[in-house]
Queue: 2 jobs
Job 1
Amino acid sequence: MSKRTDLLLAIADDELFLGWRNSEWTGIAPFLEEDVAFSSIAQNEIGHARALYELAAAELGTTADELAFDRPPEEYRCAPFVQLRRLEWARTIARHWLYETADEIRLAALKGSDDPEIAGIAAKMDREEAYHRMHAEMWVDRLLSSDEGRSRLNEAVDELWPYALGVLDDELRAELRRRVEQRLGRELADVEPVSRGVHEVELAQLLEEMTMVRRSAPAGTQW
Amino acid sequence: MVTVDEVWAALSEIPDPEIPVISLVDLGVIKNVEVEDERVRIEFTPTFLGCPALEPMQRAMEAKVDELGAKADVRVVLDDSWSTDKITPEGREKLRVAGFAPPAPRAAGKLNLLELQRGGFRCPYCGSRKTRLENIFGPTPCRSIRYCDACRQPFEQFKTI
């Protein structure tokens, strides 16, 4: 597999898994606006995954759906960060903000790619992600404005920090640290990142759930 | 033999599947049309990558070209060439009349939340700028929800991307 395909699959897997995790709030978020927001963000992320899988599929001679759903769990390249199931609001907001911040750094690098297809799709994704970032920043403002919110956000960030670092390649991590520390007004621990290639127990569980309907019907079933 | 102009005219009759008051041509998602014998090559750019209307749009274009007696080859271009600035002036007016505030022009700088919260977005019903952001996200990826304090009407604001 080419380095290009490997990169496309890593990002597509991140967006698919995070999109699925975001969609877990549909119907049960703390209030209606957040049901709508997380559902819409999920739809965007899964749309990004589809576009990236299509580029990879063209190279591998397969389809986007097969790449998304039919690989064995150990072949997924998503960061452990997006595999975690954390259906708790402070952790959801912390992950949302940390991921979107990391993703902005990653997309900025990809927009400068020599590969016009990768640069083009990164620029298109970035236009949509701007709204995810605004939403995440709005929540960070809101949580930082009270003692309880601040302490819960900080606690969640500390827990997730090694995972957030693992979303990015080594050379981009310092920029993530700089942005997060600046926003929170404190230093973060020097930790070992939980990098791509690690498969959390939640990965197989999530795939099981995500592909249940697909596996229940033979390929080519018309609905 | 079908001409490029005939294809554009036919495509301008296809309504957007989610906001049927405007056509795909108004929306600016058709990037290029070329005709070679009986084959029509259409380059099409998605609005949002996660838009569920992508496939219905493609099928509608193929069906329209079929009616002209030609065969469509629709290519989806996943680059950055579409923005809400591509919506035509006619398209913007059709959106407004239907109660969707058209997207603000894309600014040179970065989008920011303060502008969305405070900015002078005009109510499509009464024209007042006394409107506020209710939710960045709405019923589809391309829309936000705002509320007009003048006529007390919530409305959908097309996002600028």
Job 2
Amino acid sequence: MQTRKNVWELGGDWADPILWYARGVKAMKARGLNQTTSWRFYGAIHGIDPPLWQQLGYYDPSEPMPADPDVQRFWKQCQHGSWFFLPWHRGYLLAFEQNIRAAAGAPADWCLPYWNYFKPNESNLPPAFNSPNWPDGNGDNPLFVPQRYGPNNDGNVFVPVDQVNLDAMGDPDFTGVSSGGGPGFGGVDTGFEHGGTTHGGIETQPHDWVHGLLGGSDPNSQLPGLMSDPDTAGLDPIFWLHHANIDRLWEVWRQNPPTDVNPTDPNWINGPGSIGQRIFSLPLPDGTPWDYTPGDMTDLGKLGYTYDDLSSAVPGAPMAERLVRLGMSPVAAKTATKGVPAVASTKKVELVGANRSALQITGGEARTSVQLDPGVRRKVAASLTAAVTTAAPDRVFLNLENVRGLVDSTAFRVYINLPDGANPADHPERLAGNIALFGVRKASLVDGEHGGKGLTFVLEITKIVDALHLNNALDVDKLDVRIVPMKPVPEKAKISIGRVSIFRQGR
Amino acid sequence: MTPAARERARVRTPVLFISAVAWILLVLQPGGLVISAHHHSLAMPGIKMTSSAHLLTALNSPASLMTGWALMLAAMMAPLLTAPVRHLRDRSFTRRRARAIALFAAGYATIWMLAGFVLLSVALALQQIAPASSLPLMLAAAIALVWQFSPFKQRCLNRCHAHPELAAFGLAADLDAFRFGLTHGLWCVGSCWALMLLPPLAARGHLLVMAAVTLWLFSERLDQPKPPTWRYRGPNTAARVVIAQTRLRLQRS
């Protein structure tokens, strides 16, 4: 059994596991794009946009290309906006790890480290990735990438800890709903989805946010940092440590049965290949393809690896705490939530309200109001009032529908009912969530895979609605929504939200 | 069953039911929408053949042609509407869902009925050029083949996957649903018009041609949008789905 370890706790900036990683990356980078085990070939498996790669210096149209069957089989395979997001990336990490081990000639127990940016004092980019030099001062450190601009586009690369969260870890359901309700921990039921519309919980936060903020964009050319765009993300060596952390969080989430369990639906277990779509397939170090299904990815023991830290990331029991907030006694709440299996999938989802017109995001702020339907709003309030006896209060979700634009590194915070003139930072209790538009450029192409629908983000605002209800402030016609970009959004980024809506999910 | 699968089934079942009813009616009245120039044998010695246009018109009254066309649309197109109807259902208030879907259907049908008027006129004209011959059908098939491989068809197919944002309240919601029907209808006509010429021109095996075209149109909607270029465009995805599902069922049994 091999153990993936925390990159900040290996015993030094250039501890042996990092040195082996750097050697492996260097060896893979030395190979041509036409080799299936090359660095760029592995990046193209996640996604490739030749003109963008060319602009960033990663592709030369005159260089030899891989054989067409290899391109068809392996490239453009990453699963996003899909319940295959987690299992596909787990396989991608495993195959990549084998390739690095082979390319570097690393010991058999070498493992990819993970970057847990949530830990105190570990949110900065690990130093080995931040220097153009090897530890001996030579200047071709393969872990360094100039196209990493960070949250402020100034080259200072770190994860702003006040902007990432682990809220998704509290979602009892792996599979979400695509009709406006909870997107689930792992995403919504789709087929093979190289850039789906609705991102799942763990994908939205912290996955997308970390991608967008680490990568940022070139302040002069506006070209994306490698991590900001799915078509370039796999080219950045830090990508793999970020995804190892997401993979670790999946295993942490599973520590809480009988909720928090993987799907048992055959379509998930057997993967898209079982319904006639593309299979998941990756090149091994000897060039042979390794085909896998999500069902193959569920048991770390069988896969032969684990993590050095699988302790719970979210303290307490969110549902029991919620019932207590709504008036149930702690003892009754504990009893009511003990052993409750995932049931959200059997619940009803319906629209509660929506804003009136599309919202353009430019500059430092955008505002809109979500008008509520009185009848449905009363239904939500009634379920919250009755929670003391039913133990089944509605969950409420803010939807940002048809989000379109050109710049994937755009990121913003979304607030509900901020008082006029208030500084958003002073009101974390009104924060619905943070959104990074990872994948928005591709999703907005009218001839792209989704006909230009853009992306749809779903943020759970149950806590905010509970608070409004308890303060007798839910009996209103509308809720105000304020979008606060992390950096002013230029007009040429053309960021827009087609509709802002609120849905309830309950009985 | 996942929530998404349940939602799909909720829409697919009534949509397939409508299609099935239309198919039954068509089977009960075979040839209802065949352009009847082949009935030349009906021409009586007393009728001057210079009036063949009149004869065609007499044999194909506009009302019966358009009724047949509407029935054919319901049979062939209803199964293609699962995705847009789901979008309307998902994004409308529960109490407005039926109304939004009805308005969408009205917009969609308006476009297709107008297109039907033009397409059937073209079919009639083709039949006049060469009555009692399979030439018109061959010509239409050639046109459909060229269109099938063109980037224009791909562009239309891609737009059929678009799901616009929809207003939730009042007149704006009604207009958005109707407008969605119109635009979806336009792109649908754009991708299907050439193939839809074939059934009315197929004097023999009319229903078989209809069924084949229906399957073809349904199959190509399973493909994801692609960059518009000249290329072969066939039911590859559908074939793979059928093979995979058959294999799965055989394994289970």
